[in-house]
Structure formats: C-alpha cells, structure tokens
Amino acid sequence: MRKISTLALAIFVTSAALSEDGGSNYSTFGIGDLRYAANVRSAGMGYTGIGLPAADYVNSISPATWARIQGTRLEASFLYEGFNSTDGNKSIYLANGDFNGVLLAIPISPAHGIVFVGGFTPYSNVRYNIFTTGTEEGIDYTVNHLGSGGLGKGQVGLSYSPLTDLSFGASFNYLFGSLDNSRTFTPTSTSFAGGKTVETTNINGITVSLGGLFTSLGNISESLRPFSIGFVINSRGNLNTKRQLAYEFQSERDSSEVFKGRLVVPIAYGFGVAYQPSKRFLFAADYYAQPWKTAEFNGVNPIEIRNSYRFGLGAERLPVREFNASWLNKFAYRLGFYFISTYYKINGEPINEWGVTGGFGMPLTRSTRLNVGIEYGQRGTTSHNLIKDNIFRISLSLNVGELWFVRFQEE
Amino acid sequence: MIEGRRCGEKESFHLIALIALSAVLIGCSDEVSLTNSVGNQFIGTDVQIRRDTLHAISSSTFKQFLPMNGRVNLLGKTGNYEAFYPLQFQFPQRDTILVLSAKLTLRAVSWCGDSAASFGFTAHKITRAWSQTTLQWDSVQSGFFESTPTGDPYLGSVESDTQLIVVSLDTAMVRQWLQPNTFTQYGLILVPTPTTNVVRGIHAFLFDSTQFYPTVEVIAGDRTGTPLDTTNYLSGFDTFVGNIDNLNSNPELMYVQSGVVYRSTLSFDITSIPVGAIINSAQMLLELNPAASKITKFTGDETVAAHLLTSSTDNNSFENVGLLGSKATSSNVFSFDARGAVQLWVNGTNNGFLLRTTNLSEFSSFDLYAFYNQTASDPSLRPRLIVVYTTERN
C-alpha cells in the first residue's frame, strides 16, 4: 500500500516537474511572486492557519502553532502552478512544477509544548518570459526577457507553552537566493550580431518570526470556547545583495564587477482566528499585511511597489479517527477563499488576486497523510494594457509522523 | 477478505488518478514565442541602437627586419629597393669527380620595377652558416659573404613574366660542394649588379613542384676529361633579404610594406561606447593612396591584414589571426569587419591594430600599401570605424 502510493506520488511529482518552466509575467516586479503557504492543509483552506492549532501539521507561517505537535513530523510538499495569461488579444498558458519545501518538527518536551522545527520553504518565485520587438537605425530586432530564480527561507525555531492553552513561538529565518534576469537581443538580419546580458542578484539576510496562539477563550466567555486566536510578526529584514552582469556576445564573454547593495524587506504581521464548533468541523479566518511601500531596493522605493495585505476564509471537515470508520470518513475535506491586494500597482492600476481553494487529506497509514490542495484564482486585469492571469494550482504534501526522539516513561 | 479487496481498490484509485493527472500536466504548457508573448509593457528596460562613426586617434609606421622564407624570393634593384638572394644546395659525397661544367638555373615568376630595364647579378660565396628562418637584411651586411664574386655574372633583362635564368658556376667551387666530407660550404648569395633596375621574383625551394626549384646541373667527367654523367641537384634551402630606407616620406600616410618589412599601428578611441554594449557590427575603412602605393600585377588579392595588438608597448605582440581587409575593384577603400575587435575593446583593453600585408605577400613581394592616416588634410580620407551597437535604455 505504502509502496504503491509512494510510486504514484513519485510519478506525479516527476511529470509535473517535467512540465514547461513557465510562470506569471507579474513576477517581473519586486522580488517576484511572494509565497505564502503555511502548508498544503492551509492552502486548501484559503491560506488560513495563524489561529489554527494543529497537532498533525507543521505550519511555516506561525511558530506558535508547533506547540501541539506530539510526535516527530516531517512534511514535504510540491507545487504545480499554471497561468493562463491574456492581454485581451493574445493568451498563453505557462506552467511549472517545483519542490515546495520541507519541514521537520521534533518535540523536545511535548508536555511544555517545546517543539523544534527546521526546514526550507520558498519565499518568492521569479519566472517570466517576455518577447519585445522594435526597429532602430534600420535594424529589426527581438529581445527575449527571461526571469528565473527566487528567494528561499531556511527556518529554525522553537515553540513553548507556558500554559496549556497559551503558546508562543519564534524562528530565525534565513532568506537566500538569486534573482536572474536575462535579456537576449537578436537582430532579424544575420548581418548584425546579437548578444545576451544576464543580471544575477544574490540576496541573503535574516528575519525573525514571533507568534502567539491562545486557545482558551472559554475562560473569558463560554460562548467563545470554540474559538482560538493567534498572531504572527515577521521582522523587517536588511538583506545583502550582490549584483553582477554577465555578457555573452557572438564569440566573446565578459562580466562586470560585483555591485553590493541592500534590500529591505518590510515588517509583516498577521492575525488569525479559528472556530471549531464540533469534532468534525473547523472554520478559520486570517488577515496578513506587509507595508511594502517601506521596502528599499538599493535605497530606492520603486514607484510600482505598494503596501499589500491578504485575507482568507477556510473550512475543514475533520477526519474520523476511529479505526473502523469508513475510508472516505477518514479523509479531511477543505474549502476556502482568499483575496490578496498584491504589493505592486502598474500603470496606476492596483493588481489584486482572489481565489477559491479546496483540498483533502488522505490517510496512508495511521500517522502518515497525503494532502492535496487545488486552487483556482484570478489576478490582474486587461485594462490599461495589463494582463489577467487565470491561475490553477495543485499542491501536494506528504505528512509523515514517527515516534522518533520521544522518550517513554519506564513503568 | 472484504477489507483486503477494499485496500486493493484504493491503491488502484490512487495510481490511476495520479497517472491521469500526470499525463494532463505534461502536455499543458505553451512554448513562449513572439506571437503569443504577453506582458510586453512590464519591461522597464528596453534597448536602444546607435550608429557612430569613430575616427582614429593615432597611428605610426615602423620598420622591422624579418626573415622572409617565402614562396618567392626577390633579387634585384629598383628605385631605392634592393634584394639579395642567398641559397645553399645540399650535395652528396662524390670523391673522384671532375666537374666539367656547373650551371645554376632559377625560375623567375614575377617582377616589379621597370620591365624594360636591365637585370643582372653576381654570385658570392657565403662565409658562415645561416638559416632561412633567421636570416635578415641586417645579418648580411658585415662579413656574410665574399666581396669578390665567383663564376660569371648574369646579365640579362625581363624577357617574360616566367623565365628561366641560367648562370654558370665556378667548377672548382662546385667540385668542393661535391665533397662535403672534406669541405664545408655555405652556399651562394646572389647580389644585383649596379645597373640593375628591376626586381625579379624567383621560385623557392620546398614549394610547389620540384621542376620549379633552383637547380644546379653538373656535368662530371673522368680524369681524362671524358664526360660521364649529367646530374641535376635540387635539394637545398633559400630565402631573400630586402630593404628600402626612409619610406615614411609623407606624414599624412601610414605604410604597409612587404619584403622588408614596414608595418603600421592604428588606434581608435571607443570610450564613447559603454561597457556591456552589444556590438552589432563594426566596419573599419582605410583609404588607399594609389599614387603612393606599389602593388604588382602578380598580387592576386589586394588584401591587408589588421591584427589586434595585445600589448601597448610591444608591436610584435599581436593576435595570430587578423582581420582581412579588401576593396572593391573601382574603389580605394579597404573595408575590415572589426566587430569582434571592437567588442573586445569595449569590454577589455584597447591596444589598437597592427596593419601588415598578408603572409603570402609580406614574405614574397615588395608590395606597398599607403593609407591615409588620422592627420590627412581631407577628413573624408581619414581612417574611420563605423560601429552599430545596442545598449539598454531604462
């Protein structure tokens, strides 16, 4: 059973990875498309999760939620994205599949909610491919602009529960990666030589995340008992940048010196609330904001960058844990909605994104689950010479639980 | 049993669903091309193309003696040009031999100067060892050969473009040549007579057919003088050394002279082109002064080479492969494709060009190309570099 599922998963991941390496042309702005996904469960629930306690999932956004994890847990995920982009006249479908992070949670003292978590998740993604044309000095030409790369986040942190219903968490986040922008100039006539310029910007730096989760609102009022609230703050990050240009001419190569600079990633904060009226149903809502207008790109705040925020709503039908329950009842089913006011506006037009999400969690063994998230969304507009993306995402994660490093008391 | 069948059904469902999804995903993404690309207006950085005409900022002509060792060796005098022709045959040992006659036959293949003028030379014994790969004009000026000629002089004229030149050699000298175990010989150098006013090109050893090589015909006899055999010897090596002084007579010109040689350097200022610019094309144009140039009718392709100098102080340090410049039939403008050179200069060090004639001409003729330099009184004649380049426009 496990072997076959693993094989099927491997086939899926490989095939999706073989799909064309394309993305949205909106990733030309800033540091690309920002990634925000606590985990695949969260993605299926409108990307909620700040106020959601979870014993079986590792949440990369809110470190306070780790305190409920009782056994060692490994969560590895994969993301497939497809963008059907149109400018009103032409349209194109570009897709890519990529590894989407891995997190390992190791409970150190489950009684006190002390859980260590470490791993890697994506922070941003750049994937654009644009052709422009022109004629100058009697020379017809095309320029192919290609963007690739992005930032990743290496994360290590701890959670702690001073009280049963109160937990805090903190993590150090190492942001790293490179943004590559290449421009290939090709004259139409072979009488003229073309060339290529590749601009590589390596970025690295540290931010800190702090989070809190309170699950005992019943102490305030009995009617509030099903509620839990949480918050998260991500510190401002002063990231180092090193930018270098590499030139490829017809038969010559060259590179520029390295230009050092600074990228300031603004502070971010979010709030979340979860409501669980019964053992089978769970609802969540999140709000997360980041004032990108305060960001600095080598001392400059680009005109197209603006403050961003997002909110999400989600619901989950929780699985039945009894061994003799039917197979379909052991699934978790999820539904959600999200809205994002992105961090850029172009030609004076603010670019927003919305989406509906869904998903399920399927048990493979008693402690291992395969989570699937499916999402459809839209971003942008065709007015003001912009493009509209119809977004299709499939996310997949394998969530494996083992009783490693757990001490059992000897009788 | 029932539970086991249910598990099997689940496995089949997983497998079929994921494989089906895989198949859909593989085939879905489009190839981006010019016709379906969207988001052009997102590109803040575009390109601009410029076409600039750059003018040379410096040039110089210098003389440099080099070993020739070409396919055609020059011999004669015309105007201020002078060429000597050394050659050395390699003979086997023949001990008991009486040389009755010895004739040197040379195959002339070209001429320059006055074809109606007289052509003559004397043969002199060379007094020391030499090599065709190292001998230069300045090597032969002191003690290289005996001042007294040997054998008979050759006195003649240009009877045709291709002509056999035959001159008798001193038989005693040739007898010694045929005893290499006893006598060491270094060959002959042919020196033009004072009345010569034409330069002839002589077919060299080790090139093309042996029937064109310089040849020594020896008729040998027995002790009584009866001719016994006639042998032709055509194994040897040769070169030529040539000279002309004070060539840089016109300060508005730069000279490229074969056979001696004179070479020129030429530099352009390309600092107006930003680093990182894509050089789409670059054409260097040099205007020839036909009156000051001398190119023989035997030069098939009138071609000049421009080599990238790799040192700012050493004119002998240059790229082996040069740009070849040629002109249209009815034009005096030599055009060079300098795209690669300008691209290297933009992103690296600019030491300019070294101008020379091509190998075929430089070591086998007295061809002279005189180009206008950057000081020419008529600006339209000055060297220019027409560059088309692309930069980014933010």
Largest interface: A-B, 70 and 52 residues
**Main beta sheet of chain A, described?**
14 strands, antiparallel, barrel
Number of helices of chain A: 2
Give me the oligomer status.
heterodimer
Account of the 3D structure:
The complex is a heterodimer of chains A (411) and B (394). Chain A is mainly β and 411 residues long. Chain A has helices at residues 2-18, 40-44, and strands at residues 33-34, 72-86, 91-109, 114-122, 124-125, 128-136, 139-163, 166-187, 195-214, 227-234, 237-248, 253-255, 259-265, 268-275, 281-290, 296-297, 308-317, 332-346, 349-363, 368-380, 388-402. Chain A has a single domain (17-402), classed as Outer membrane protein transport protein (OMPP1/FadL/TodX) (Porin, Beta Barrel), CATH 2.40.160. Chain A has two helices and 21 strands. The model of chain A has no long low-confidence stretch (mean pLDDT 90). Chain B has 394 residues and is mainly beta. Chain B is built from four helices and 22 strands. In chain B, the strands form three sheets. In chain B, strands 2, 3, 4, 5, 6, 7, 8, 9, 10, 11, 12 and 13 form a twelve-stranded antiparallel sheet that branches. In chain B, strands 1-15-20-17-18-19-16-22 form an eight-stranded antiparallel β-barrel. The chains are: A mainly beta (411), B mainly beta (394). Chains A and B meet through helix 1, strand 2, strand 3, strand 6 and strand 7 of A and helix 1, strand 1, strand 16, helix 3 and strand 22 of B.
Summarize the entry for a quick read.
The complex is a heterodimer of chains A (411) and B (394). Helix content of chain A is 5%, strand content 59%. Chain A is mostly beta strands.
